[in-house]
Write a structure and sequence with these properties.
The structure is a homodimer of 332-residue chains. Helix content of chain A is 35%, strand content 23%. The first copy, chain A, is α+β, with helices and mostly antiparallel strands. The first copy, chain A, has two domains: 10-146, PurM-like, N-terminal domain (60s Ribosomal Protein L30, Chain: A); 161-315, PurM-like C-terminal domain (Phosphoribosyl-aminoimidazole Synthetase, Chain A, domain 2). In chain A, strand 3 (86-96), helix 3 and strand 4 (122-130) form a beta-alpha-beta unit. The longest helix of chain A has 19 residues, at 65-83. The two termini of chain A are 38 Å apart.
Chain lengths: 332, 332
């Protein structure tokens, strides 16, 4: 084993910082095996998702390492929430750049431990390497959902109501605030927005409840922007959608920004990183969905309806459609 | 959706090159969903493993893209083979650098398709991003093994025979050959070695057969070098091991290199990237292991025994232990 730069060797790093994170997962054998073996829960389907996070692209290299860790998990947890799955465990790959020191890794592992406790998951396995390029992380999350109950993109039907959790647009304005922009806003508002970007709140409890109760026809998490992700559901379901812009829930800081510059509503509707739920719920189930949301303590808003006409429209109070510059965003 | 550099957007890339790779996996829904949902096979344990591959570190940026793809899968498949699991599917993250063009991705997808067919797996999901740094790839492989039968590192007992498949040391000398070194060797020998590095042959059939038949006490794939991985088994099993160096199988090119410079045997025993199986088999089961190897068409050699004394020793024909400069290697 050779040492490189400031860091202990790969096996030593794993033993010191990552093995403790696998202590609650017997199949991980303290990460001393090559793979994780486990007996799947009976009567359940498994749900798997993976996301990559690269410094400078998905997070800032100067972000606190514990928050980088927690966002890595939460972005993936939100995918599980969008399918109605409850999380079980995760695998992770880390490619540390030359400037990473042991204190960074210790803090990073602290963040993982914190969210493992919060979401009841354990580290199941991974791969620890180095990179000459930017710090690169990936996580693969594994969850379970009662067999056949996973929420899909393709199940929306014309007439279904469009429901969303929380507030829309905080992701994109949160990124701006996190970068030190939006200086017209008061400091507490800027801080609140930045926090929403840095530490998303995946809607685990409500997603799982809706799947278990069979309340929604379709669902996903909003990560590429409300407009783009709604288009994804419509495309997969073979229908359209009309959203009443006035019904789209926004946070106070975003309401303030849009009041000053109404054109910014388009950014709120198309910006990424919201990590809320987007649901297609038949009118007869809306009351049940609201009750599940109440129990989960999650705000839920009815913003429009799925339609026969294939177009995705955002209409103002006069029924006039808003021209959106682009639907959603990608990492290219 | 915005276009960047030479490449189409993320969703277009996925639709064009990666969705076809998910065609045989109904749960992947053509990669148009956020996560993969599936019903695990009954009576089976699932085995999960993940590995990261970064250009310049795990492969050369100039390597043919189809071979990069196939090695990414095979390195992970070898982990499954080491646990005795049969592969089911995989998730993948890709972070493409600025110089990647569509032709590269098309060829990369071709390599994935080729090994998907060879190993009976499908793409279940993933994440496609960009990076300003070196091209970075990860794969998470999922396999299954009859419940409770997964091979572990921790089961070796004193008296068990140490069995290895194939030949040892081709990985490290194959890397040298691939880099254009070892010019004393004839071209065909250099080419054969380089191929072993570029395109490992994971021992899927034998690994699965040994697990299903319960023939081995412990097992893993040799990826960090025979000496280091043997030390891993000993550490997890609480025993030692003595290997007769003369019994360690080497390929003709490696035999030639060692004949010219006997000190090179240490490199063969400690070098990584062999992707062979390392097994602990009780003497009473060696015949069954050999029969399974014969059926799988996989060479299998008996190279020594696990011992009560905790040391890992490699001894010559006179019983003298070889001093190894280091045990295994890491990516630091």
């Amino acid at each position: 084993m050779t040492a490189r730069g400031k860091l202990p060797g790969e096996f030593e790093l794993i033993a010191r910082y990552f093995a403790p994170l696998a202590a609650d997962a017997p199949g991980a054998l303290g990460l001393r095996d090559d793979a994780f073996a486990f007996t799947p829960p009976t009567g359940m389907d498994l749900v798997l998702t993976t996301d990559a996070a690269t410094a400078g692209l998905h997070f800032l290299r100067s972000d606190p390492p514990d928050l980088v860790a927690r966002k890595l998990l939460r972005v993936n947890l939100s995918d599980l929430a969008g399918k109605g799955a409850r999380p079980l465990g995760y695998l992770m790959t880390t490619a540390f750049d030359d400037a990473i020191d042991e204190a960074w890794i210790a803090k990073f592992a602290e963040g993982l431990a914190q969210d493992q406790a919060e979401y009841g998951i354990a580290l199941w396995g991974g791969d620890t390497t180095a990179t000459p390029g930017p710090l690169a992380l990936t996580a693969t999350l594994i969850g379970s959902v009662p067999a056949g109950r996973a929420l899909r993109r393709g199940g929306a039907r014309p007439g279904d109501r469009i429901l969303v959790t929380g507030t829309i647009g905080d992701g994109i304005f949160g990124l701006a605030a996190h970068r030190g922009e939006l200086t017209d806003l008061a400091a507490p508002a800027r801080h609140a927005l930045a926090q929403r970007y840095v530490l998303p709140q995946p809607r685990m409890a409500l997603g799982a409840a809706l799947a278990e109760q069979g309340v929604a026809h379709a669902g996903m998490d909003i990560s590429d922007g409300l407009a783009g992700d709604l288009a994804h559901i419509c495309e997969a379901s073979g229908c359209g959608a009309t959203v009443e812009i006035a019904s789209v829930p926004v946070s106070d800081p975003v309401a303030e920004l849009v009041a000053e510059n109404p054109a910014l509503i388009a950014s709120a509707l198309t910006g990424g990183d919201d990590y809320e739920l987007l649901l297609a719920v038949p009118p007869s189930n809306v009351a049940a969905a609201r009750e599940a949301a109440r129990k989960a303590g999650t705000p839920l808003a009815d913003i429009g309806a799925f339609t026969h006409t294939p177009a995705v429209q955002f209409v103002d109070r006069d029924g006039q459609p808003l021209a959106l510059p682009s639907l959603g965003f990608t990492h290219f």
